[in-house]
């Protein structure tokens, strides 16, 4: 994912940059919004992470300028001003999502994934494909080698997450944040249980396993 981070807090910017780089994203960092619009116009971006409180130009004004310029890039606004009224202001200016500070890094990743999936779905004709495994996002029907596979709602959510970015490793914490909306596993091994169920349905009846485990890191799918 190509990400522009506009954040004037050096400590926060460094934390986000290191974390997103470790996740395999391409990230460019600006600490002032004054000249950001020129950068945004000249770069191909998937998501902008925009701090609300910036020097010279605040995040709300910059967000309005981005939308007034007709730029359709996804915008995730960050702010310590996180009550309902402030979140509404951010969304009304054109932000696609609003995350209050302080935040869990896994939640930031989950929200970025969700924003990326919106565009990915629009450009993929509502279908995901990995090897001979297919997921129709309109009907949520799963087929492999032309055989229909019945999955539960949670199994479908996990599979969609994995298939959106094949070969990308998702930690248990990331899967929990995306699928269950929590950051700690209340049942200690719920993700592992569901991954075993998925493998039993997706991989066991077929010759080539698609769902992989990276020891100590998490799960990914590869055709």
From TrEMBL:
Query: What keywords were assigned to this record?
Result: DNA-binding, Phosphoprotein, Transcription, Transcription regulation, Two-component regulatory system
InterPro entries reported in the protein's UniProt record: CheY-like_superfamily, OmpR/PhoB-type_DNA-bd, Sig_transdc_resp-reg_receiver, WalR-like, WH-like_DNA-bd_sf
- Signal peptide residues on this chain, from the entry's feature table: none
Q: Which residues form the OmpR/PhoB-type domain?
A: 125-223
Q: Where is the Response regulatory domain?
A: 2-116
Q: Which GO terms describe its biological process?
A: regulation of DNA-templated transcription
Q: Which residues carry this modification: 4-aspartylphosphate?
A: 51
What is the protein name stated in its UniProt record? DNA-binding response regulator
């Amino acid at each position: 994912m190509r990400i522009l981070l506009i954040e004037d807090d050096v400590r926060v910017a460094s934390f986000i940059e290191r974390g997103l780089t470790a996740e395999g994203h391409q990230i460019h960092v600006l600490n002032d919004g004054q000249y950001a619009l020129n950068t945004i116009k000249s770069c191909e971006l998937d998501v902008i992470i925009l701090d609300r409180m910036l020097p010279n130009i605040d995040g709300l004004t910059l967000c309005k300028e981005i939308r007034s310029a007709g730029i359709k890039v996804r915008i995730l606004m960050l702010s310590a001003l996180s009550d309902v009224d402030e979140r509404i202001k951010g969304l009304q200016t054109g932000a696609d999502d609003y995350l209050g500070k302080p935040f869990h890094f896994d939640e930031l990743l989950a929200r970025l994934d969700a924003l990326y999936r919106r565009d990915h779905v629009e450009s993929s004709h509502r279908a995901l494909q990995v090897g001979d495994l297919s997921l129709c996002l309109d009907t949520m029907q799963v087929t492999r080698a032309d055989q229909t596979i019945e999955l539960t709602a949670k199994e479908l959510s996990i599979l969609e997450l994995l298939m959106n970015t094949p070969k990308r490793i998702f930690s248990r914490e990331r899967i929990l944040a995306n699928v269950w909306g929590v950051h700690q596993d209340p049942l200690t091994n719920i993700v592992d249980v569901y991954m075993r169920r998925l493998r039993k349905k997706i991989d066991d009846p077929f010759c080539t396993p698609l769902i992989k485990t990276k020891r100590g890191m998490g799960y990914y799918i590869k055709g």
